[in-house]
Amino acid sequence: MKNKIDIDYEKILSDSGMPTTAETVRAEFDALVKSEGLITNTSRMSPFWRLIMAIVTTPFLWLKDALINVVLKNSFLATASGAFLDLFAWAVNLTRKPAIAAGGVIHFYKTDTRQAVTVKAGTLIQSERINGVIYQLRVVADTLIPAGVAALPVGVEAVAVGSAYNLAPGYYRILPQAVAGISHVNNEEDWLNQPGDNEEADDDLRARCRNQFNLVGNYHTDAVYRGMISSLTGLNSERIYFVHDAPRGPGTANAYLLLDTGVISQPFIDMVNDYVMSQGHHGHGDDLQCFAVPETHYDLTVTLYVKDNMTAEASEALINNVEHLIRCAFRENSQYDVVKVWPYSRYSFSQLGREIHRHFGVDSVVFSRGDIISGLEIPRLSSLTVVPDNE
Asked: What's the rounded mean pLDDT across residues 27-41?
């Protein structure tokens, strides 16, 4: 979440005079006992006094932690979480978006165009292993590829919910069990009709709640459109970019959408536009059209300097893993914790080099190009080559 505020509630309590550590609690209680003259033997060696101190100090610290981590943190939208954040969302007429499975189409190619082939429901298609994880899709219904047709897009859905299944084109190309009459499969451009998504994270729901406070006007402002578009599963309110320069004349604007993982397909964009314009959610006289964020494409060669005693098998695994990490940075998968490319930003290859060092411990990394500076576009890879160089 952008510009997330960080509040130190313990410091606030301490600054107001409330003891917040075991030492300050003991000092306060000791001063109170001495002023009242209730107990005369307050020696550290006294078992009775140590018991009294424990009886006083321990519950006080429990209550202090409960006050900070439950009461105060969940009293404000900026720091509330879990069920408490759901209450804030309910107050502004929102609910947390549920997890959903990705859905789309996979192209099945026949070995013999002249033969009809039926692809059975439940047929699995999977990715190669990405950071130890294999992602699978399954065919949703029996599908006939008639004679005379070389290939056909077949409806599929992910075997589990989550945005991690929104892999970029070219990832799903493995049939774990051969299908008679099928030579190969592939998820091609515009394969992802419905992006998968995890249950809405606290930061994402918090951003939508904040946006709701901007909806009290009578006009369809950015906040109104941001709220209605981000209500659709798979879209985040902070991944929507508006252009107001009347691209189709007065009263017109464009909204550009970005997925955290994968590439938005045209069928999904068409669905969003239908929701906004055809289903009556737009303002009077408004013409808002949604698009995928424009892409810029780059060729990238990465040279890895590694020890010369690395085996061929280890070298191949390293190349494969580094390639997946780089593709993750360019939003093709979500299996690594790395800085990703963004619109309106500079993408730092020195940062990417540090992340490769951190994950794989190579000796050195050299990139074929410098940083990428983006406006309203998202950098993508048109080609990626990872080459090892033994020292």
From this structure: 69
